Amino acid sequence: MVSPLYLTLLVGPMEPLPAPKPLADALVSVEVTESATGRSGFQLTFTLADKGILETFFLLAGSSPLPILRVVLLVTFPGIPQVLVDGVVLHTEVQPDAMSGSSKLVVSGQDLTAMMDLIDFSGLPYPGMSPDIRVLTILAKYAMFGIVPEVIPVPAPDIPIPLLQIPTQKKTDLKYIEQLAREVGYVFYLVPGPLPGMNQAYWGPQMRLGVPQTALNVNLDTWTNVESLNFRYEPQTSVLPIVFIQDPLSKINIPIPIPPVTPFNPPLGLAVPIPQKIEPITGTAKLNPAQAIMRGFARSVETADVVTGEGSLDVMRYGQPLRARSLVGVRGAGLPWDGMHYVDSATHRIKPGEYKESFVLKRNALIANTPVVPSLPF
């Protein structure tokens, strides 16, 4: 028996509440995009009735100088609630249909990182604070939105002496947090959930570890659970980053190559290709060794993926939503492609009685390095 699919829409200026029945009944389609390193976004499509309050409600929200209307989408399948996105409305558009005589209202937005990119706090001082403490200080002001920081300490923090130097913020909170992440080889993104109204703000190294999701089956007759899945192999994209560490005595810059396999980016296959390009990373000689190596790790993760898979699936057949920023197994695609992959992005498309997804997989090697992949999550 197939489990029923429930979609819950929460809206509100600060604390999202269940949408009124006229608003929920007018919703005809939902599209949510998740990205492993970038922002997540959403698009809601409503039918417009004559003299309805729907258009006025969203247009007034969109005309405000600040994105004050918060939207949370919660999907329950199979019997397990998951928060797909928690964001704010940034754009509204009315699409008239002269042929049918009806119109549609399209509401678009991004996750709560949009709230962090509104006000320029340039010049705000952070005396005696390492980068991770600065990030925690910035994220503290967004606790009212249910944002819980998950900040990984820098391995070798460079803490300026306040009498000599006081770091100051540049641009908005989001841009400054992303700048601090790049300087130490980290990434920053928001993960919605686990409860509605909560978000985890992750600032740390991009790690491709964790519990895999239900395997994607290809060409396995009745066990097949994807509609399409195509792979391509691009070894020319792999880069060997070179970081430089300065010897404190001789002042000589020592080059250190960073391989495509790192502690944060373990090999997901047996055959890891040799990088075809060498890329010196400038500016690392003035950093301490740990910071320079972390920046090399970040560049290595960005360029190590030589295998890309693009596909689509029916969530009702697959059994659960496929989420980005986690691992998934592939079976039946062939010797070079089977095994574990990293879900780089996922786009959810929901309509009445239908839940489809398109996704992008990434991997840094060929041929599975595990004898089996889990058909169901642990």
Describe the structure.
The protein is mostly beta strands. It folds into three domains: 6-115, Baseplate protein-like domain - beta roll fold (Phage tail proteins - horseshoe like beta roll fold, Roll); 119-204, Phage tail protein beta-alpha-beta fold; 235-303, no CATH class. The chain has six helices and 19 strands. It has helices spanning 21-26, 54-63, 131-140, 173-183, 289-303, 315-318; strands at 6-12, 17-18, 27-35, 41-48, 70-76, 81-97, 102-111, 147-151, 187-192, 199-204, 213-217, 228-233, 239-246, 253-257, 277-280, 307-314, 327-331, 339-351, 354-363. A hairpin with a 4-residue loop joins strand 1 (6-12) and strand 2 (17-18). The mean pLDDT is 87.
CATH topology term of the largest domain: Phage tail proteins - horseshoe like beta roll fold
Query: What is the number of domains?
Result: 3
Under CATH, the homologous superfamily of the largest domain reads Baseplate protein-like domain - beta roll fold
Instruction: Give the low-confidence spans.
Output: none
- Give the structural class: mainly beta
CATH architectural grouping of the largest domain:
Roll
By CATH reckoning, the class of the largest domain would read Mainly Beta
Helix content: 10-25%
Strand content: 35-45%
Number of discrete helical segments: 6
Mean of all residue-level pLDDT scores: 87
**For the terminal residues, how far apart are their CA atoms?**
22 Å
The main pleated sheet reads as: 13 strands, mixed
Got a strand count? Answer: 19
Supply Rg. Answer: 23 Å
Order of helices and strands, N to C? EEHEEHEEEHEHEEEEEEEHEHEEE
Which geometry do the CA atoms define? Answer: flat
